[in-house]
Amino acid sequence: MSAFFYIMILTHNQKVGFGISTKIHERILDYVSSSGEELQSFKYLFYGDISTILSLEETLKKEWRKYLWMIFKGNKWKLELLDPKFNLTAEDVKRWVENKILVEELPVRCIKSEWLPYRGNKKVQNKFISLNQDMYLA
Question: In Å, how far from its chain's centre is CA 31?
Fold first, then answer.
């Protein structure tokens, strides 16, 4: 099974976030629904087998722990959002991901720029990518 690693800038508060999903179309709709903003999008998308994508996200969370935004609502939550006080950008996260892919020779590829930013295009799905990787993957 394959999955996506996404990097986004939330339109309603400009915070940089990241995450993973096997169903990217449904995931972007989750952000639209929870934010009440129709134009949420994923600025960058990476694609690979689910175990590699899960490991990539876990490593990012460990290495960037001090940069994650924390909120306190009865207990401490580390969110998959970067704390704005560090002035890190979506491009900083993208460079980190690209470096991990290169250094560790991970079987992860970028979704081509013509499909980005991703706003819910149903053509960008596992079933279509598996049929024509050259059309979608850089």
Answer: 12
